[in-house]
Recover the amino acids of this structure.
């Protein structure tokens, strides 16, 4: 079966092979240049990933605030007899407790909230 490229119908197997080899070479060159640039920045004393650390701290704080806002729901679920994560999830979903993305509660999302609440 012959290879046919819609955007280059004139291309044959040899041409595709050469183009893929050039693309692979360019990928390797980009990788080497990126690594060299990061090493040079680090040598100059640039703190890499600073924004990521700031965003991570903000996200943790927001998640903790959200968990605290859910504490009354969790206490109601516990008082109603919920024991497993699935029980909590069903209770929260059935009682229209909002999730962060507006979906339904899953055992893992319940676990994360419970872990934050201690």
């Amino acid at each position: 079966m012959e290879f046919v490229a819609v955007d280059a119908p004139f291309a044959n197997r040899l041409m595709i092979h050469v183009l893929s080899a050039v693309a692979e070479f360019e990928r390797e060159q980009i990788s080497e240049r990126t690594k060299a640039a990061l090493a040079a920045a680090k040598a100059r004393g640039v703190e890499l990933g600073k924004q990521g650390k700031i965003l991570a701290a903000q996200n943790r704080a927001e998640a903790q605030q959200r968990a605290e806002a859910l504490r009354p729901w969790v206490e109601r679920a516990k008082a109603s007899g919920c024991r497993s994560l699935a029980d909590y999830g069903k209770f929260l979903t059935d009682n229209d407790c909002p999730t962060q993305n507006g979906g339904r509660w899953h055992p893992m999302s319940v676990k994360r909230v419970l872990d934050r609440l201690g």
